[in-house]
From TrEMBL:
One of its GO terms (molecular function) is diaminopimelate decarboxylase activity. Homodimer. It is an enzyme of class 4 (lyase). Belongs to the Orn/Lys/Arg decarboxylase class-II family. LysA subfamily. The active site is at 343 (proton donor). This is Diaminopimelate decarboxylase. Specifically catalyzes the decarboxylation of meso-diaminopimelate (meso-DAP) to L-lysine. Residues 35-279 form the Orn/DAP/Arg decarboxylase 2 N-terminal domain. It comes from Solimonas terrae. The modification N6-(pyridoxal phosphate)lysine is found at residue 60. Pyridoxal 5'-phosphate binds at residues 239, 273-276, 371.
Amino acid sequence: MDHFEFRHGELHAEDVPVSRIAETHGTPLYVYSRATLERHYRAFDEALAGLDHLVCYAVKANSNLAVLQTLARLGAGFDIVSGGELQRVLRAGGDAGKVVFSGIGKSEDEIRLALDAGIYCFNVESEYELELLDATARLMGKRARIAFRVNPDVDARTHPYISTGLKNNKFGVDIATAEALYQRAAEMAGIEIIGIANHIGSQLLDVSPFLDALDRVLALVQRLAARGITLRHLDVGGGLGVRYHEEKPIAPREWATALRPKLDSLGLKILTEPGRAIAGNAGILVTRVLGIKGNEAKRFAIVDAAMNDLLRPTLYQAWMNIVPVIESSDSALQTYDVVGPICESGDWLGRDRELAIATDDLLAVRTAGAYGFTMASNYNSRPRAAEVMVDGSDVHVVRARESFDDLVRGERLLP
Ligand SMILES: *Cc1c(COP(=O)(O)O)cnc(C)c1O
């Protein structure tokens, strides 16, 4: 459920007509809904009620400061994958004590930053990272709290680029060797073992891979306990899917209901790291039709948003719903490829879409709140889009549209 609805044939973001927002703030434009973000966060929080738990929003899905602030105010934790994301969380008022740090290539500088901030846990993904973490923590006179992110070798049955839990993925430590790593970590002065984590992929539409992964992780928890290594928390990762087209995603409540029989009696704090399921349908990308070209065989609607604004179609061949912001009966229904102005044939937002549109019409790409703006680039020297957050009948600019000066900031001519 989200708060983008048609009222009298006009798409609204909460109580504001999207066309009015676009008139004021221009296009391409990301529009977020605060109520939707809050609703999705609460869905996870409530699904785990009664268990000691922490919902750590995966910052890379949408890292706008106002998005992070909205969630921080609800008490969210955060899953970060870089020092930059940690600084964003802190800038937005997030609690470092609720941050877990994932990622396979943490640098020494990032580790120092996180130790200084006092984050809750490092999700360690390799032996070399463990050694670096131990050495860095000891130099700083600290102990790093860690969980190993184990790779349970289960197939998440999602797109190969967003599947992370198979043996041949680069993520996590092999579950078969994790026990030996825990043993090593237990002997390190700079390390305090507090948990175990896994995250098997993104846009999962079925609960069974979660259950398979959990069984393997719980078997490891028991083997560790037999060695005297006891844990405080279990991080079940993120990855719940959303509806882009005809998918039937699992609701947080269904997901939790399926997992809870295995979790309720463990006595461990439960962490989860949802990104897409919180931010995905809390945002749309609004774009204007620049012109229409083509012939009877092929029609293109050329719009002012492109792959630099929204990479998912190009990168994952993702299908995203594209709808006119104002339903009109003046234009004839035709089949279009909706494409951006970038000099790449891969620059498309949607293919073979039935739309009744004309030049200057506004379109909305739905469910663009996650992995939208955060994957944006300046390719073709295109300034990145503005971002606004709607809150009831208020519209707040949460990131100004970039200017030419922003594009060349830091660049220098030769003497
Ligand atoms: C990306 C990521 C997530 C969030 O995944 P979603 O599919 O957006 O829920 C969670 N945990 C880790 C370690 C990640 O890399």
